[in-house]
């Protein structure tokens, strides 16, 4: 077995009622003047009040205008605003957009350079403020990963800041925070979580530890996402999604994601598809491509999804897995093709050019992709 390192938030607190531990965690981390980083959707839905109701300090600073899929300039502006206050810790409350922003803000509170210079791996010098992450989607897994993704509007791409200094001190993952999550966000972020688990399971860096997390995450998400989508107030389905998303985050935070994410990135950067939507639309096409490189792994996945396999050939089972995943996306009403998002086929060469540069993720994929292969996969997605 090759050597592998397992990274996570320092402490995970999960389950219904987990928010009750927030006050204790703030004292433990010696946070007396926290800033809450969130967004308008989360504050207006009432989800934020679950957090403010259990805080043991008065009048925290609340920055509640993080937009979805934030750009670098958003972080620079919020950092300038945050620095006007005496803040000694950060609580991130939101989906991946708010949590990623909070991770960068906590790391850069005493940093005077350009945020753009931190894109890449291990370029963050340290973290200035302690950080507690409370996800409201299920989800990105950002509460346990060492990456923050920001859009670069000039280059039209989404880029990652990768550093262990971004790993939160505490992640509090609880279904009540996701009950108000709107249907289309439940669908997109839920499929994103499934892709995290699947790509981690197929990754060339998978380990027995990430396999255990990824396989359970796939079982939980595959069965609970349609239920949570149909009835957002089904607490059991929301709890299974929250747990599945967390486990998927732990899996991909260590094994990495692959070509689905690499081909999704340019769709977000160029055409502003949300992270979840862009992954969902590329998912079946990349997976059909991957089958040849790791058929046995697809057969394992058929077991995790409880698909019927009797009297089927190995190739039929692997194809059935991709069909089932495609059917999951249709159940939660995610459009099937790039054409549905008004993207022209003329964009394929540009998309392929940009995707082929996402080597940080392509190198995790079980099958090597040339630029011509990427062109073919995008063409199939139209
Ligand atoms: N750091 C990582 O490991 C990682 C992994 C995957 C994705 N991401 C990034 O995360 C971002 C996407 O995050 P996301 O899919 O969680 O969505 P999001 O954070 O962009 O939120 C989408 C919308 O849903 C609303 N919302 C979220 N939770 C809600 C709730 N409980 N009630 C009411 N409204 C709610 C928000 O207000 C927002 O308008 C992208 O920028 C993506 O690149 C990061
Ligand atoms: Fe993702």
Write the layout of secondary structure elements.
Layout lengths: L10 E4 L7 H7 L5 E4 L2 H5 L2 H6 L8 E3 L8 H11 L6 E6 L1 H13 L11 E2 L9 E5 L11 E6 L4 E6 L7 E4 L9 H20 L5 H23 L4 H21 L3 H13 L3 H16 L4 H10 L9 H18 L16 H8 L3 H4 L8 H10 L2
Parallel strand pairs: 1-9, 2-3, 2-4, 4-6, 5-8, 6-9
Antiparallel strand pairs: 7-8
Give an account of the 3D structure:
The chain has 15 helices and nine strands. The chain is α/β, with parallel strands linked by helices and 382 residues long. The protein folds into two domains: 11-178, Rossmann fold; 183-380, Up-down Bundle (Dehydroquinate synthase-like, alpha domain). The strands form two sheets. It has a six-stranded parallel β-sheet with strand order 1-9-6-4-2-3, sandwiched between helices. Strands 5-8-7 form a three-stranded mixed β-sheet. Helix 6 packs parallel to helix 10 (275-290). Fe (ii) ion binds next to helix 6 and helix 10.
In DSSP terms (H or I, runs of 4 or more residues), the helix count works out at: 15
Beta-strand percentage range: 5-15%
N-to-C series of helices and strands: EHEHHEHEHEEEEEHHHHHHHHHH
How many individual β-strands? 9
Write down the CATH class of the largest domain. Mainly Alpha
Radius of gyration: 20 Å
| Poorly predicted tracts of residues | none
Task: Describe the main β-sheet briefly.
Answer: 6 strands, parallel
State the CATH architecture of the largest domain. Answer: Up-down Bundle
Helix content: 40-55%
CATH superfamily placement of the largest domain: Dehydroquinate synthase-like - alpha domain
CATH topology of the largest domain: Dehydroquinate synthase-like, alpha domain
- Spatial order of strands in the largest sheet: 1-9-6-4-2-3
Coarse shape: globular
Average pLDDT confidence is 96
Family: Belongs to the iron-containing alcohol dehydrogenase family.
Organism: Alteromonas naphthalenivorans
Pfam families: ADH_Fe_C, Fe-ADH
Keywords: Oxidoreductase
């Amino acid at each position: 077995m090759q050597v592998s390192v397992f990274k996570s938030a320092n402490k995970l607190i999960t389950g219904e009622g987990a928010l009750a531990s927030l006050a204790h965690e703030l004292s433990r981390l010696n946070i007396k003047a926290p800033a809450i980083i969130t967004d308008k959707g989360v504050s207006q839905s009432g989800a934020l009040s679950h957090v403010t109701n259990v805080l043991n300090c008065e009048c925290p600073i609340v920055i509640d205008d993080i937009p979805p899929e934030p750009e670098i300039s958003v972080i620079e502006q919020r950092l300038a605003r945050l620095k006007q206050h005496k803040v000694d810790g950060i609580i991130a409350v939101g989906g991946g957009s708010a949590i990623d922003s909070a991770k960068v803000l906590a790391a850069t509170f005493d940093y005077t350079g350009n945020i753009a210079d931190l894109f890449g791996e291990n370029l963050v010098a340290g973290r200035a403020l302690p950080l507690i992450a409370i996800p409201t989607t299920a989800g990105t897994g950002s509460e346990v990963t060492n990456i923050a993704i920001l859009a670069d509007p000039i280059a039209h791409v989404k880029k990652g800041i990768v550093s262990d200094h971004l790993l939160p001190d505490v992640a509090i993952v609880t279904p009540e925070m996701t009950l108000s999550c709107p249907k289309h966000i439940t669908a997109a972020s839920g499929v994103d979580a499934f892709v995290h688990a699947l790509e981690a399971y197929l990754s060339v860096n998978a380990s027995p530890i990430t396999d255990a997390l990824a396989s359970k995450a796939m079982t939980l998400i595959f069965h609970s996402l349609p239920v949570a989508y149909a009835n957002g107030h089904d607490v059991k389905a929301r709890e299974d999604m929250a747990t599945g998303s967390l486990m998927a985050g732990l899996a991909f935070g260590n094994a990495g994601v692959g070509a689905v994410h690499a081909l999704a990135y340019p769709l977000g950067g160029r055409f502003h598809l949300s992270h979840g939507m862009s992954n969902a639309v590329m998912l079946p096409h990349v997976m059909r491509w991957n089958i040849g490189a790791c058929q046995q792994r697809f057969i394992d996945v058929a077991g995790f999804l409880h698909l019927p396999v009797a009297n089927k050939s190995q190739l039929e089972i692997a194809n059935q897995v991709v069909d089932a995943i495609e059917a999951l996306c249709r159940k939660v009403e995610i459009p099937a093709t790039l054409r549905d998002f008004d993207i022209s086929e003329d964009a394929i060469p540009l998309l392929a050019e940009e995707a082929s540069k996402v080597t940080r993720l392509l190198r995790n994929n079980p099958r090597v992709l040339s630029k011509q292969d990427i062109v073919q996969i995008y063409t199939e997605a139209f």
